[in-house]
Design brief:
Rossmann fold, single chain, 15 helices, 3 domains, 526 residues, seven-stranded parallel β-sheet, Jelly Rolls
Length: 526
């Protein structure tokens, strides 16, 4: 069995890359394994930081193409098994059997028809056309709202009768002076609706086209592709590596003189980059979830079943040391999204000190990745901590992290606190690898009782799950005041952490693959 594993972020050496290493070692027992990425990996550093030796694993490096992943997609055709182990990277997969490790599914586009065209209602004013791929997020300038294509904007035309459909597009080519003007071809189910059209350098152009009866006669949704030459922007954009095609301001379909249904600003604003993920996910045979919490959201957002596969934590890298009166929190310093709430916990520790807690320190470990917003948030945290025994370890190496885990008695995790898991589940701990690492070092975790953390912590046995910050304060003081209970829970935490070891990951993965409906000639039994 030949296996290929994709990860765009190998050099970041985080949790997803740890999972990559576990996949590679497990699958290597059954045949050649290649890792495909966009820069040559440093396997020595990979082994040093994550503990997985991938020196015998092959590597394929392809140019980065973040909107299409063409090089990765084409490479999958050469393999029996493909594993996408890269967060939110929408690679279309063509191996004999394809697996996606879903760290957490993205929020679906607001339009219910983005992935699957919506059947036309009986009272619909005419055919319905919806974006299903190849568009970036909605932008706006003095002309009004628009969306860039990536060179092939794709739409689904639904509800048309077996008769001609008038198609009207309003689009523009805005290029640098040294870029040639865009050439556009519009196709319906592969049939060109006109010769190539050269757009002017500036200003919008309206194309009036006709989808012939021969295309609409099948009764199935028609795929309309707006294909153009592309260019690479170099200024005033956050996605400078992306290639852009043309701007689309609106697209309308009309049949039999009925009022057209326009997918313009009101429709394009429903489009997000996540649509690509939803388009690609349908090419996978098996989805893997890193927790029951993620599994429920996969079903809710993707409409797919998934298999539970807890992440592999290198618990052997962490061990208890001589304990100090020390609390630790671990996580990147940032405010938005999956925030670790460091500032809130700093205020909580200050409150404990002000109320008489003496001799204890609070240590915060986390990455900034040289990000300006993260650095700014870190400085806010530092300023709030002035005058208190609070120590920061930004971008600490693994050896420092392991030492701090080993010395600390308590681990605080308030990720997701104050958020609604039914509204913004992305802001929570979907599993919580750092919690398991702390437990392996005999550090008793106190975590917010939502999302993936209740799957890791056994309440008042191997840790504490709190509902409010007052409960976190009360539990912290209770454990500090009951050293015998704290020692017993530390032992239980070490034992519990072994549940999430690489060895258990490997056994679970082998079971899942053995039970999967793999094509003949593939699979671990080969």
């Amino acid at each position: 069995m030949r296996s290929l594993i994709y990860n765009q972020w190998v050099a970041t050496l985080g949790g997803g890359e740890q999972t990559l290493g576990a996949f590679a070692l497990t699958l290597a027992a059954f045949g050649p394994v290649d890792v495909i990425t966009h820069e040559p990996p440093d396997w020595d550093r990979f082994r040093e930081i994550l503990g997985f030796d991938l020196a015998e694993v092959g590597c394929r490096v392809v140019p980065e193409d973040p909107m299409h992943y063409r090089g990765v997609s084409e490479a999958t055709r050469d393999y029996d098994l493909f594993v996408n182990c890269s967060y939110l990277d929408h690679v279309r997969a063509y191996a004999r059997f394809n697996v996606m490790q879903v760290f957490f599914p993205p929020e679906p586009p607001a339009s219910a028809g983005v992935v699957r065209p919506v059947p036309r209602r009986l009272d619909a004013p005419g055919p319905v056309i919806e974006a299903i791929g190849g568009l970036y997020r909605l932008e706006s300038d003095y002309h009004g709202p628009f969306a860039w294509t990536d060179g092939c904007g794709r739409f689904a035309l639904s509800g048309a009768r077996p008769a001609p459909v008038a198609l009207t597009l309003c689009l523009a080519s805005i290029r640098h002076r040294d870029e040639p003007p865009a050439e556009v071809v519009v196709r319906a189910d592969g049939v060109a609706l006109s010769p190539a059209v050269t757009l002017p350098d500036h200003g919008y152009v309206t194309l009036d086209l006709v989808v012939p009866t021969a295309v609409t006669a099948s009764g199935r949704p028609v795929l309309v592709d707006v294909t153009s030459s592309t260019f690479e922007p170099t200024r005033n954009r956050t996605d400078d590596r992306a290639r852009l095609g043309v701007r689309i301001a609106s697209i309308a379909a009309t049949q039999g003189g009925r009022r057209p249904v326009v997918t313009g600003p009101a429709g394009l604003d429903r489009w997000t980059d996540h649509c690509r993920f939803y388009d690609a996910v349908n090419t996978y045979d098996l989805l893997l979830a890193n927790s029951h919490f993620t599994q429920r959201w996969i079903a809710r957002r993707l409409g797919r079943a998934s298999e539970l596969l807890y992440p592999p934590v290198q618990v052997g890298q962490f061990a208890p040391a001589a304990k100090k009166q020390q609390i630790i929190s671990v996580g990147r310093f940032f405010v938005e999204g999956h925030s670790k709430k460091q500032l809130r916990m700093i205020e909580l520790f200050k409150r404990l000190c002000d109320d008489g807690l003496e001799g204890w320190e609070y240590h915060l470990v986390g990455g900034t990745r040289h990000d300006a917003a993260a650095a700014s948030y870190l400085e806010r945290c530092r300023a709030a901590a002035v005058g208190y025994p609070i120590v920061f370890h930004p971008d600490a190496p693994l050896a420092t992290l392991a030492r701090l885990y080993g010395e600390s008695r308590l681990y605080w995790n308030a990720t997701g606190y104050g958020e609604d898991p039914d509204v913004e589940p992305d802001r929570f701990e979907h599993f919580g690898m750092t919690t398991v690492e702390a437990m392996a070092a005999g550090c008793v975790p106190l975590s917010y009782a939502r999302a993936g953390q209740p799957e890791v912590i056994e309440q008042w046995h191997s840790g504490v799950l709190f509902e409010t910050l007052d409960e976190l304060v009360a539990a912290t003081l209770r454990l500090i005041g009951e050293p015998h209970r704290l020692a017993m829970m530390a032992d239980a935490a070490i034992l519990r952490s072994s549940t999430f070891s690489y060895e258990n990951f490997r056994a679970s993965l082998l079971r899942i693959l053995a039970d999967a409906d793999l094509p003949a000639g593939t699979g671990p039994a080969t």
